[in-house]
Design a protein that fits this description.
- This protein is about 40% helix and about 20% strand.
- The chain contains 13 helices and 14 strands.
- Strand 12 and strand 13 form a beta hairpin.
- The longest helix has 16 residues.
- The N terminus is likely disordered.
- It has an eight-stranded mixed sheet with strand order 5-4-3-10-11-14-12-13, sandwiched between helices. It has a two-stranded antiparallel ribbon with strand order 1-2.
- It is globular and about 45 Å long.
Length: about 300
């Protein structure tokens, strides 16, 4: 404490930042994965016990040999959690030149019996209607910076990536505000597989606000009528609700952002199901409430 009094504040900041850079690994279940400097997951899970905890519970309740798709796989933290809780084949999709090497290296850390079930692809997923370049952040995420540029990224639809559009059980999307575009590129998958959907519902710009609203109508037509809404810290806000409720929460969150209001939470994660997999989803929600929320 005495020594700290004689350290100028700027040096204290530098020391804290350097100490954060030394953390290069993070344990997820039985595996210890490599993480980039300043990767946010360890911090979020240390201070928010529900952060990123639902998907492994969902995977545990799937009990099928159908494929799970992870769009925006980042460094592989989600797939490493999923692979320990299911027996499904998993397709990971990540376009980043920075994160994809981490994803490949982290997949090599898992056991051979698990490794054979995972395939990693370096592609941008979407309809192709949004143009731009990939922009990375210090916290370990990346999103599209929209611009009409000649060197804009080239998109491929999910329908074209997947070998069998009738064999998908879960589609998880986390691409920082562009999830609606990736999901809309999976029309055949949604029609033929009716997979459980889990996406990050982050809205930063007007076109994203409208894009998500259009996607909700698109999903309603596909039979997605059971909606579960989580805050960005992993806590359950609404269950078995509808897209009207989600639109109202979007309006609330977007208004807070535009008017610089005090934030209670920043975005939502959304779980959606048709009648086909509703019982599976209810079972996972009940287990999540019992094992995580109510503890």
């Amino acid at each position: 404490m005495i020594i700290r009094q004689f350290i100028p504040p700027i040096f204290g900041t530098i020391i804290r930042r350097l100490s954060g850079l030394t953390k290069s690994r993070y344990r997820i279940g039985k595996y210890e994965i490599k993480i980039p400097p300043n990767f946010a997951l360890p911090h979020f899970q240390k201070f928010n016990k529900l952060y990123d905890r639902f998907l492994p519970v969902l995977a545990k309740n799937i009990n099928s040999d159908k494929t799970i798709i992870d769009v925006g796989a980042n460094i592989g933290d989600t797939v490493v959690a999923l692979i320990q809780n299911c027996k499904n084949p998993i397709l990971c999709i990540e376009p980043s030149d920075i994160f994809f090497p981490y994803l490949e290296n982290n997949l090599k850390l898992i056991s051979s019996e698990d490794f054979y079930r995972v395939k990693a692809i370096k592609k941008f997923v979407g309809t192709g209607l949004i143009k731009g370049t990939l922009n990375h952040t210090e916290k370990g995420t990346a999103s599209i910076k929209v611009a009409e540029l000649s060197d804009s990224v080239t998109y491929i639809s999910l329908d074209k990536i997947v070998d069998d559009v009738s064999n998908i059980i879960l589609l998880k999307v986390d691409i920082d505000g562009f999830d609606f575009d990736a999901i809309k590129s999976a029309e055949e998958i949604l029609s033929q597989s009716e997979p459980v959907l889990f996406w990050e519902n982050e809205i930063l710009e007007d076109f994203q606000y409208e894009g998500f609203i259009e996607m909700y109508s698109f999903l309603e037509k596909k039979g997605y009528k059971y909606i579960y809404i989580f805050d960005n810290y992993g806590n359950l806000i609404n269950e078995e609700t509808n897209f009207v409720t989600l639109k109202n929460i979007n309006s609330y969150l977007y208004s807070m952002r535009k008017h610089n209001c005090t934030r209670t939470f920043h975005y939502t994660d959304v779980l959606a199901s048709t009648e086909k997999n509703h019982n599976l989803v209810k079972k996972a929600i009940n287990e999540y409430r019992r094992e995580w929320i109510n503890k």
